[in-house]
Structures are given as C-alpha cells and as structure tokens.
C-alpha cells in the first residue's frame, strides 16, 4: 500500500516546504490523525457528519466559510456545542491567487467576525507569498496531508475511502468537505474510514493551537524595530 502518486490526494514533501510556517501534518510519534471538513456549514450535510462523529465518539475540525456561518448560525453553534474545533476558510471561498493581499486579508477578517478562530485554511490551498506572510502573522495556517477528493463526483465513495486509508501516516491532517458536491461521497466514506483506521490503532483528535502562538525570530525582531520607531516618533512629537 504505497502512498498515492495522485497530487490531489497527497502533495510531495518538497511542495509543503514552500510554506514552512503552515501546518501540513503533526508527527508526534503517536498514532494520531486529524479529520477536517471544509466549506460548511451546510444544512443536512454538516448535521449528518456531526451525527457520524458523535456516534463514533470523535472530535474533528471544521474550516467554515463565513457566509455560511452567517446563513446557518444554528448549525455553526451545533459544531461548537458538540466540542469540535472551527477554523476560518474566508468569507465566501475566495481564492488568494485571484485578488490582492489587502482584499484577501480583509475577507478573512470579515469571516472571522462570525467564526472567531486563530486557524485559517486557504480555499484550494493556494496563496500568494505576500498573502501567506501576512496571514501567518495573525493565524495558524492549516493545510493537509491527505485529501479524500470527496468533492469530485466522478469518484466513488470507495475510491475516496481508499484515497484516505492508503495514504495516511502518523499525524496526518485529512480533508473532507461538508458541501453539497461532496455529500454522496463523504457520508458514505467517512464512517468506513473511521472504522478502518480505528481498527488499525489510530486515535482522532481535533486541531487546536494556543491563542497566541510564538512568532518567528524574524517577526519578533521586526516588531521590536517597529515599536522602537513608534516610540522615537512619539518622543519627537512630544519634544
Ligand atoms: Zn474549500
């Protein structure tokens, strides 16, 4: 059971190094996996996924679209009330490649008024370098190690199941979707994936990061220089 060569399912490690501050996988030497669900909340689909997770006694992470949280606040509340984590997936599934850094960041901030999370996952996974650098100062960017490809309606639920169980490794972050496109595949593949991997000895956890994760050394120095400049400006004005 080798890892898939399908780039949609699993990216080679050299690509993940382009975004070194992002989280792709959390290897800890333990048999732990992280289930994530993108694009919701959506009526019927998100609650059906929540029911599966509740039945299996599993906590997961939902990367929500701000507009959907605005439209379906009661489903969003249910996700949180049932003990799952939530992350930001922009206000309207905006693609970074298609807009300026300022517009993109404002869109994320708008979504966060409804979501309230320090985790961010970019739709389609792609960001401009400048966007990546700016967002990483404010959010933990969470990517993935394995994608089920449940959104592709030309695939069978069995294929989506295989995409996951044949490609996970310790600490994998796994992506499914609570979207209309993915409904057929995710609702059938998810319980089978959970059962198979639990039988293989894996435990599932939700993603959580301390509210203020440490900034990089470079960031800290940059902030210190900015503070010093501001202090000097203030002193000059006061003089
Ligand atoms: Zn998405």
Features:
single chain, TIM Barrel, alpha/beta, two-stranded parallel ribbon, 6-stranded parallel beta sheet, 239 residues, binds zinc ion, 9 helices
Task: Write structural notes for this entry.
It is a single chain. The chain has helices at 13-16, 45-56, 66-71, 73-81, 101-115, 129-136, 157-165, 183-199, 217-238, and strands spanning 32-38, 61-64, 85-88, 119-120, 140-141, 146-147, 173-177, 203-204. With 239 residues, it is α/β, with parallel strands linked by helices. It has one domain: Glycoside hydrolase/deacetylase (TIM Barrel), CATH 3.20.20. Strands 1, 2, 3, 6, 7 and 8 form a 6-stranded parallel beta sheet that branches. Strands 4-5 form a two-stranded parallel sheet. β1 (32-38), α2 and β2 form a beta-alpha-beta unit. α5 runs parallel beside α6. Zinc ion is lined by residues 38-39, 89, 93, 123.
Rg over C-alpha atoms, rounded to the nearest angstrom = 19 Å
DSSP helix count? 9
Low-confidence stretches: none
Shape: globular
What about the largest sheet?
6 strands, parallel
Question: What is the arithmetic mean of pLDDT?
Answer: 91
- CATH class type: Alpha Beta
- At CATH level 2, the architecture is Alpha-Beta Barrel
Helix content: 40-55%
Structural class: alpha/beta
**What is the number of domains?**
1
Distance between the termini: 72 Å
In N-to-C order, the SSE pattern is: HEHEHHEHEHEEHEHEH
Any idea what the CATH superfamily is called?
A: Glycoside hydrolase/deacetylase
| Ligands | zinc ion
Give me the count of strands.
8
